[in-house]
Automatic annotation (TrEMBL):
Biological processes, Gene Ontology terms: valyl-tRNA aminoacylation
Protein name, per record: valine--tRNA ligase
Enzyme Commission number: 6.1.1.9
GO CC annotation: cytosol
UniProt KW keywords: Aminoacyl-tRNA synthetase, ATP-binding, Ligase, Nucleotide-binding, Protein biosynthesis
Organism: Perkinsus marinus (strain ATCC 50983 / TXsc)
InterPro entries xref list: Val/Leu/Ile-tRNA-synth_edit, Valyl-tRNA_ligase
GO molecular function: aminoacyl-tRNA deacylase activity; ATP binding; valine-tRNA ligase activity
Family: Belongs to the class-I aminoacyl-tRNA synthetase family.
Domain of life assignment: Eukaryota
Coiled-coil annotated spans: none
Length: 61
């Protein structure tokens, strides 16, 4: 499981990816892998790398 923080729960139905900071060693092994959407199990979400993701806020992904 990957714990993800969001402040906009209602937008999760449109999520197609999860972004992580490429310098965050906790998640680099996930980059390029697929995750199961928590509300739509048939939808896969890819993990992408983006420097914009803060490693110090929320869960970091």
């Amino acid at each position: 499981f990957v714990h993800i923080a969001t402040t906009r729960l209602e937008t999760m139905l449109g999520d197609v990816a999860v972004a992580v900071n490429p310098k965050d060693d906790r998640f680099t092994y996930l980059i390029g892998k697929e995750l199961v959407h928590p509300f739509i199990p048939d939808r896969k979400m890819v993990v992408i790398a983006d420097d914009y993701v803060s490693m110090d806020f929320g869960t970091g992904c």
